[in-house]
């Protein structure tokens, strides 16, 4: 599993986790254990641009994480106004929904092809079309084919 803030990305049974490039929106998979110890940028296998891992979260994960952040902010504001009374200001606090702030994302994209990149001796997952067109190693940025 790989964790961002409160969201957890579940890896597939090969230990790969799905990521998405913020620029070209391509999805691919990388080694989960590697990502957890990552101290450098990774490369998009399709456009070859290196970026920090936090720009590679799949869009549904980013959306959900943003929702939770919003709800938590609302909750904090509601808490802050609780018991706040003034003859000039009236604040009505609406009931706060309970938020499940632990998000776990099951691994999808099972149609991806699992490939071993020889340069880094690690596995990746790619859509068959991206594999056919050629790609970069997401670990070191080298052109694989
Ligand atoms: Zn890209
Ligand atoms: Zn490599």
What composes the largest sheet? 4 strands, antiparallel
Number of β-strand runs: 9
Global Rg? 20 Å
Number of helices: 3
Q: pLDDT average, as an integer?
A: 84
> Based on helices, strands and strand pairing, what is the structural class?
alpha+beta
Poorly predicted runs are none
Helical amount = 10-25%
Bound small-molecule species: zinc ion
Q: Can you put this structure into words, describing what you see?
A:
This protein has 145 residues and is of the alpha+beta class. It has one domain. Helices cover 23% and strands 23% of the residues. The chain contains 3 helices and 9 strands; from the N terminus they run E-E-E-E-H-E-E-H-E-E-E-H. It has helices spanning 32-36, 59-81, 128-133; strands at 2-4, 7-9, 16-20, 27-31, 42-43, 50-51, 103-105, 113-117, 122-126.
